[in-house]
Design a protein that fits this description.
By secondary structure, this protein is of the alpha/beta class. The protein folds into three domains: 274 residues, Response regulator (Rossmann fold, 3-Layer(aba) Sandwich); 35 residues, no CATH class; 159 residues, 3-Layer(bba) Sandwich (Glucose Oxidase, domain 1), CATH 3.50.30. 35% of the residues lie in helices and 12% in strands. It has 20 helices and 14 strands. α5 packs parallel to α12, α6 runs antiparallel to α7 and α11 packs antiparallel against α12. The two termini are 23 Å apart. The model has no long low-confidence stretch (mean pLDDT 95). Bound molecules: FE2/S2 (inorganic) cluster and magnesium ion (MG). Keywords: Iron, Iron-sulfur, Lyase, Metal-binding. Belongs to the IlvD/Edd family. It comes from Rhodopseudomonas palustris (strain HaA2). InterPro entries: Dihydro-acid_dehy_C (IPR042096), DiOHA_6PGluconate_deHydtase_CS (IPR020558), ILV_EDD_C (IPR056740), ILV_EDD_N (IPR000581), IlvD/EDD_N (IPR037237), Sugar_Degrad_Dehydratases (IPR052352).
């Protein structure tokens, strides 16, 4: 029997009175004793007027409540923080761990037997899952779903790969003011998350692959009726989990589940951010995502899903082609089908029911992949002793092995001030370097790693250059871009030592990123380096963030939130 309203009761010596009080107050909402005696399913409300990606959350919640009640349990909706990419200053990543803390503590604080967590816009799904893992109640995850596509002059458009591509054309003078305004109204034609294989879509696919959400829930478009039927079913499943007291995230998040997630991350050509978030989720279990191991998986796993930014299609096309179950079917023995899911069924059952859509070309077979290798590669070298990542699926083949002259920007502000200066000394085969843009340095590791092509080169038709930084990049971006250089420059990383004019060698096949400067010269520069460490904020969340943020290879969680740092409660 589930605990319902009795769960987490602090009795202070008189449990009967505590329950009496609890019931007296909740009855103010008009609930009957019959309702209050049932197992309780908490539902997080991550709706916000600032978060258009979560615009369908009220409807999702209604559907979940219906499902919970049809299955004989009691739904209780409670608010948690909502984070939207475009409205989160200084960066949404700065707030991810705050959201995870909020959700975890509210799950712990309030009586519930199971919880449905709703997320979608980039940082929200990882935050909700990190929270759920730490609270470890039976949990169903619901992604809000992708937007439907837009159309412009006969062309299909998607946020935000095409935002960047068309804005770059506007910068280069190929699209005028009136047309870019028209495009602006067509890039995001509905509520829901970016409909390319950006971070939101990536995390929704990984969630499904880890068995934490219902089959197809990653890909059903946000406005579709099917989205709400899936939410209703999620409510039923959560009610069953509340009664059965499981499975819990700790039951499902096995090494096999994390390996499956990494296989899917490579096979979808997923976002580089997905790797940070997966590492953070794993750190809560605890489980270590080994970056060399991830790179090895990438050498065996082909990219099979043909979605922007590395391919041609959008999430709704992926959905109509069979979604994640079909992808896992195509991946064959690369997926461990014994891994269990929220319904208790193994992935084997889900994959066996995958839809076979004749003639679809979005989910390829292994003998006809988009790329023979996975989407992401890990690099190391004297510039990145603890690693860096490149999404080589979305990079220019001719730049995969490239040595060039460094052009260094000391911070995001410095880059913003100088990148379009007509007098900037830069050529197309130079390597653009951005530093002090990591987890602690910026702070919050902004998506500044997609340095724009300097205006004068863009106008000359240059579309891509090697760009390297300790920052992140939007999963929707395209280019030969090395990210997450670890340790970051503000944490004593060698990126702090690079000077304009140095030679930098990128060799993706060899998985190397190196600064071609003598060790003795680097030692001299290190000794002369004035402490580049970011100033410690004087109070509040900023200080907590500064003091406890981990590096990218540890998922950028706060050190005290990882399982190793967790106090038992
Ligand atoms: Fe919310 Fe892209 S801005 S998912
Ligand atoms: Mg994004």
């Amino acid at each position: 029997m589930a605990d319902g309203l009795r769960k987490g009761l602090t009795s202070y010596g008189d449990a009967g009175f505590s329950l009496f009080l609890r019931k007296a107050f909740i009855k103010a909402m008009g609930y009957s004793d019959d309702a209050l005696e049932r197992p309780i399913v908490g539902i997080t409300n991550t709706h916000s007027d600032y978060n258009p990606c979560h615009g369908n959350v009220p409807q999702i919640i209604e559907a979940v409540k219906r499902g919970v009640m049809l299955a004989g349990a009691m739904p209780m909706v409670f608010p948690t923080i909502s984070i939207a990419e475009s409205f989160a200053h200084p960066t949404s990543m700065y707030l991810r761990n705050l959201m995870a803390m909020d959700t975890e503590e509210m799950i712990r604080a309030q009586p519930m037997d199971a919880v449905v967590v709703i997320g979608g816009c980039d940082k929200t799904l990882p935050a909700q899952i990190m929270a759920a893992v730490s609270a470890d109640l039976p949990t169903v995850v619901i992604p809000v779903g992708p937007m439907v596509v837009g159309h412009h002059k006969g062309e299909v458009l998607g946020a935000c790969t095409d935002c960047r591509r068309l804005w770059a054309k506007h910068r280069a003078g190929e699209i005028d003011e009136a047309e870019i305004e028209a495009v602006n109204g067509r890039l995001a034609p509905s509520v829901g998350t970016c409909m390319v294989m950006g971070t939101a879509s990536t995390m929704a696919c990984l969630t499904e692959a880890m068995g934490l959400s219902l089959p197809m829930s990653a890909t059903i478009p946000a406005p579709h009726a099917e989205r709400f039927r899936s939410a209703e079913e999620s409510g039923r499943v959560a009610a069953a989990m509340a009664k059965a007291k499981g499975p819990k995230p700790s039951d499902l998040l096995t090494p096999a589940a994390f390996r499956n997630a990494q296989v899917v991350l490579q096979a979808i050509g997923g976002s580089t951010n997905g790797l940070i978030h997966l590492t953070a989720i794993a750190g809560r279990v605890p489980h270590k995502i080994d970056l060399d191991g991830f790179d090895r998986i990438g050498r065996d796993v082909p990219v099979l899903v043909d979605l922007k930014p590395s391919g041609d299609h959008y999430m709704e096309h992926f959905h109509h082609a069979g979604g994640v179950p079909k992808l896992m079917a195509q991946l064959g023995e690369l997926i461990d089908l014994d891994a269990r899911t929220i319904t208790g069924a193994p992935l084997r059952d889900i994959v066996a029911r995958a839809e076979h859509v004749q003639g679809q070309d979005v989910i390829r077979s292994r003998d006809n992949p988009i790329r023979r290798e996975g989407g992401l590669a890990m690099l190391t070298g004297n510039l990145a002793p603890r690693g860096a990542v490149i999404k080589h699926a979305a990079a220019s083949p001719q730049l995969m092995q490239h040595t060039g002259r460094a052009v260094v920007f000391d911070s995001v502000e410095d880059m913003t001030l100088r990148i379009d200066d007509p007098d900037l000394d830069v050529a197309a085969d130079d390597v653009l370097v951005l530093r002090n843009a990591g987890p602690r340095g910026a702070p919050g590791m902004p998506e500044a790693g997609y340095l724009p092509i300097p205006m004068k080169l863009a106008r000359a038709g240059i579309k891509d250059m090697v760009r390297i930084s300790d920052a992140r990049m939007s999963g929707t971006a395209f280019g030969t871009i090395v990210l997450h250089i670890t340790p970051e420059s503000a944490d004593g990383g060698p990126l702090a030592l690079v000077e304009t004019g140095d030679r930098i060698a990128l060799d993706v096949a060899a998985r190397r990123i190196d600064l071609l400067v003598d060790e003795s010269e680097l030692a001299r520069r290190r000794a002369a380096l004035s402490s580049s460490a970011a100033a410690r904020p004087t109070r509040g969340y900023a200080q907590l963030f500064h003091d406890t943020i981990l590096q990218a290879d540890e998922g950028c969680d706060f050190d005290f939130l990882t399982a190793a740092g967790r106090s038992e409660r």
